Amino acid sequence: MRVQRVLDFTGGEPSVRSVDRDAVERELRVPLPADHKELCGAFGGGTFCESASFLGNMEGPMFHLLVRWRASLSISRDGEPYPAYTPGGHGFVTWASSEWADQYCRLLAAQRPGEYCILARGDAGEWSRHEMSTSEFLYRVLADKEFKPFGITEYNLDPTFQPGCSVHGS
Questions:
Q1: What is the CA radius of gyration of the chain?
Q2: H or E element: which one contains 78?
Q3: Where does the source fall among the domains of life (predicted)?
Q4: Range with the poorest average pLDDT among 69-73, 75-79, 86-90
Q5: Exposed, middle or buried: residue 146 (CB in 10 Å: 0-12, 13-18, 19+)?
Q6: What is the mean predicted confidence (pLDDT) over 146-168?
Q7: Is the confidence at residue 1, as pLDDT, over 70?
């Protein structure tokens, strides 16, 4: 239902994208939230409102969740309150970001599968925790004027979605 709000906001039509969610969950060794998988199926990966990148494609490096996650494992996070997720462990996996250096993540814990929250970090580097679904958080980023500091409506951007391209140019 909340994924439909994002589709309505962007004027998009639901589509059925071929996304190998099982491969993602096998590599992460933890299930992803159902609504995140639904967003991936409806949009794939791409850019909302010309400024918020959604990692949903499982092809090509630009919007590929696992490619970005694997790269995050090599970054030192000394002193950070949340580590990058490691299989069988706990930590964050980035699923979207904005051109203003905002980072939107899912906090995962292999010991507590099915328990999820959103972690968001603004350009100042401070983390905030949000107990909501991926699609609700994304909708609020795109459309809620009161969703500070992550909302982008103040920039008067068109409510669009531009799909990312795969390696093969599709």
A1: 15
A2: none
A3: Bacteria
A4: 75-79
A5: exposed
A6: 84
A7: no
Positive or negative: CA dihedral 54, 58, 60, 61: positive
The residues spanned by each domain of the chain are 2-162
pTM: 0.90
CA atoms within 13 A on the CB side of 48: 31
pLDDT > 90 in the chain, percent = 62
Pairing mode, strands 103-109 and 117-121: antiparallel
Identify the three-state secondary structure at position 40. helix
List CB contacts of 151: < 8 A, sequence separation 6 or more. Answer: 140, 141, 142, 143, 144, 145
pLDDT for 69 beyond 80: yes
Helix H or strand E segment including 36: helix 34-43
